[in-house]
Amino acid sequence: MISDRPAEINDRAVPGHWEGDLILGLGSSAIGTLVERTTRFTMLLHLPRMEGHGKTNSIKNGPALAGHGAEAVRCAISETIMDLPAHLRRSLTWDQGAEMAQHAQLRIDTGLDIYFCDPQSAWQRGSNENTNGLLRQYFPKGTDLSQHCSEELSAVAHALNTRPRKTLEWRTPAEALDRLLKQDMIERVAATG
């Protein structure tokens, strides 16, 4: 639970702590969102419709066929976040949605510590909620989010990551992340030199 989360995550002092969520669209379509708490860097998860969605009657408590079942979300997070260096994948805070039912396997796959918000407490993932609001400029409510391909999601993430933020002293999330990566590279070279 979020009450177990270390203070370093709460005060944004240490990078590598992420907040995640789904934005939902028409017909239970969804896009996953990951936001790094220190830099506000955003990564979007492509969750295409699963085969069979809308073709068969749904069974109560049956498998999710909308593209954002637990396995699809786990795989998308793993594939996306593993592109980052280990020091930038420390933890993930999510709400208590069923899409995170495979959180234990996600932790094994990625090494992320997983924390869950209290019920009805979206404010505990404030950076992510703010970013989801910005994303609605690109993905309006009530639209089919499954129609957007990975390339489109990357373009939208790029637009958000190159947008200056007051909280970053008017730097962009991309600049803030780049600064962290360069700083890490310099520290590694200094340690070996």
UniProtKB/TrEMBL annotation:
Its Gene Ontology cellular component terms are: cytosol
Q: Report any one BP term from Gene Ontology.
A: DNA integration
- Signal peptide range in chain numbering: none
InterPro entries xref list: Integrase_cat-core, RNaseH-like_sf, RNaseH_sf, Transposase-Integrase, Transposase_IS30-like, Transposase_IS30_CS
Residues covered by the Integrase catalytic domain: 11-181
The entry lists its GO molecular-function terms as:
DNA binding; transposase activity
PANTHER family for this protein: TRANSPOSASE, TRANSPOSASE INSI FOR INSERTION SEQUENCE ELEMENT IS30A-RELATED
The UniProt family comment states: Belongs to the transposase IS30 family.
Q: What does this protein do?
A: Required for the transposition of the insertion element.
Q: Supply the name of the protein.
A: Integrase
Identify the taxonomic lineage of the organism of origin.
Bacteria, Pseudomonadati, Pseudomonadota, Alphaproteobacteria, Acetobacterales
